[in-house]
Amino acid sequence: MSERIKEGSVVSFGYVIRTQDGAVLDASTPDEPGTYLHGAGLIASGLEAALLDHAVGDELTVEVGPEDGFGAHDGSEPIIVARERFPEDLDLAVGMQCTDESESEALWIVALRDDEVVLDANHPLAGQSVVYEVTILEVRPATARERGVGEPLLD
């Protein structure tokens, strides 16, 4: 019998993420599937809950609402920053994630203007439901190292 996903499982999965109207937002490739430690909060909580108890070969489609996905839009206004505040050699792009000066808050680039970068604290998908099409490729118990117990990952 195939290993089922449970807390402490390392799971590899193929995926396509779509908007509710079907536009593709992201997709894995055969060489780079999604991989996560179940129960560690590394993927959207709604997706993680739906994957519990599934096994290799299972295919499922899961709609995840904002509350269990990318969060509600908090209503905050975008922040406009002078482009010169970013390293000159940094290739800025809409959708790129960065942090504020204290490195405590994640920000996303939502627009680029001649001399300005427009940042938003809301994830670009905040307030939206997304649809995950998932195929489970591998399920195995996490090693102590993967669970963060014992030896550090980087020596």
Radius of gyration over C-alpha positions, nearest whole angstrom: 18 Å
Q: What is the number of independent domains?
A: 2
- Assign the CATH architecture of the largest domain: Roll
Structural class of the helices, strands and pairings?
mainly beta
- Shape from CA axes? elongated
The tally of helices reads 1
Distance between the termini: 37 Å
Biggest sheet features: 5 strands, antiparallel
CATH class of the largest domain equals: Alpha Beta
Low-confidence stretches: none
Order of helices and strands: EEEHEEEEEE
Average per-residue pLDDT, rounded, comes to: 90
Question: Beta-sheet strand percentage?
Answer: 35-45%
Q: Which fold name corresponds to the CATH topology of the largest domain?
A: Chitinase A, domain 3
**Percent of residues in helical segments?**
under 10%
- How many beta-strand segments? 9
Question: What's the structural blueprint in terms of helices and strands?
Answer:
Blueprint: E1 9-19, E2 24-27, E3 34-37, H1 45-51, E4 59-64, E5 79-82, E6 97-99, E7 106-112, E8 116-120, E9 130-141
Antiparallel strand pairs: 1-2, 1-3, 1-9, 4-9, 5-8, 6-7, 7-8
Structural summary, described in words:
Helix content is 5%, strand content 36%. It has 155 residues and is mainly β. The protein has 2 domains: 79 residues, Chitinase A, domain 3 (Roll), CATH 3.10.50.40; 42 residues, Thrombin, subunit H, CATH 2.40.10. The strands form 2 sheets. Strands 1, 2, 3, 4 and 9 form a 5-stranded antiparallel beta sheet that branches. A hairpin with a 6-residue loop joins strand 6 and strand 7. The protein is elongated, with a radius of gyration of 18 Å. The model has no long low-confidence stretch (mean pLDDT 90).
